[in-house]
Amino acid sequence: MRALRAVWEWLDQRLGLAPGLQVIVNNLSKPLPPHVNWLFTLGAALVFLLGIQILTGALLMVYYIPSADQAHASIEMIVSEVPLGWLIRSLHNWGSHLIVIITLMHMVRVFVYGGYKKPREVTWLIGVLLLGVILLFGFTGYLLPWDQVSYWGTVVTTEAPASIPFVGSLIRQLLIGGEEVGGATLGRFFVAHVFLLPLALFGLMGIHLFLIRYQGVSSLGRIDEPEPTSKEMRAQGGKSFFPYHVLKDITTMYVIFGILLTLSLLYPPFIGDPADPLSTPPGIKPEWYFLPAYQLLKYVPDIIGVQIPLILFLLLILLPLVIDRSPERRARRRKRIVGGVVVISVIVVLLGILGHLSESTQTWFGKEYYFDLMGMPHPLIEIK
User: In CA terms, which of 113, 171, 205, 337 is 20 to 30 Å from 16?
Assistant: First the structure.
């Protein structure tokens, strides 16, 4: 302890750290509103998972070779020859899925509690941008194994921008580096995945976390009423962020890591045959979080279907600025906007389910069904 105190005093005399440390201590000791519950730990769980992704991704980069000729072989070497390489890859793979799930859950929690309303609109907007960055991580990382599924899944996904009027073909060429998905595409996706997107992630996440701690958690009161002071929140039963809520955050991280490790050990990701541009395997689909957009393109013209996901992102951005200007934060007093979001969410989930079932054979209640391209079931034979 004496050594640490001596080091602290030496640094404080030269850098003047005491005032900054006091600001941090005061911020951590501020009470939270009494309605803050376990759902408010999802943000910390997301930061934790992103940290695991960065660590496992860095370890994979040591052996991965971003070349169309060697990418698949390097993944096989990681899985079969590198000590615990299969586990690192499995953690990275399952972590990407859990990050998307928890990000969506976190945004739903913010929406339900009205946390995007004045004066926290900027925090919400940065959160929407973070969602876009996370989806781009999944999009660019999907191709890197360079097997048949990832290759043709990328082919299917990158064909969508070509239907955008006037600039569609140019966007696709810039995206894949040519006329067809190939080595140039792999190189571009790798650079985006390990360099460009992490830069965007660190910048946006840093600002997001700073605003959360600077502005604090919103109350459930109207936005045209003054927010309760620290003394009022303590009187209402609110507890300090540290140590009470920090302990909840740590507990949630522990549970999430247990889920991640269990999935990684029991269900390691499969790696298929090397990519073959001349052989198209049946039933190729994108990742589950792109399935709603993928299935939508089967029902509407491409020129419309491509723009609908962009419109949904625009609606998320406009939500606190234009769409929901009500001073109420409580969900039961925002029935119209909450009902609209529920309807859109149900449609998105239904499209995802139909996309998952389409072009597959399933057994339900003793009967075998084939689900066609549109996701409609057709009975085949009765299974005795």
Answer: 205
Contact 301, 361 (CB under 8 A): no
Q: Tokens 């571009």 appear where?
A: 188
Whether the CB-CB separation of 117 and 143 falls below 8 Å is answered with no
Cα Rg for the chain, rounded, in angstroms? 24
Q: Report the predicted TM-score, pTM, of the whole model to 2 decimal places.
A: 0.94
Do residues 284 and 156 make contact, with C-beta atoms less than 8 angstroms apart? yes
**What is the pLDDT, as a whole number, of residue 382?**
52
Separation of alpha carbons 269 and 264, rounded Å = 8
Structure tokens at 138: 């999944």
Mean pLDDT, the chain cut into blocks of 10 residues (384 residues total): 85 85 84 93 97 97 95 96 96 97 97 94 97 96 94 88 80 88 94 96 96 91 88 86 92 97 95 89 87 91 85 95 93 93 96 92 86 88 53
**Burial (CB count <10 Å: 0-12, 13-18, 19+), residue 34:** middle
CATH number of the 35-270 domain: 1.20.810.10
End-to-end CA gap in the chain: 74
Q: Is 327 helix (H, G, I), strand (E, B) or coil?
A: coil
Q: How far apart are CA 132 and CA 143, in angstroms?
A: 18
Q: Are 218 and 115 in contact (CB under 8 A)?
A: yes
Phi and psi at residue 4, in whole multiples of 5°?
-65, -40
**Which residues neighbour 244 within 8 Å (Cβ) at sequence distance 6 or greater?**
none
Element (H, E) at 9: helix 2-15
- Determine the length of the chain: 384
Q: What integer pLDDT is reported at residue 217 of this predicted model?
A: 92
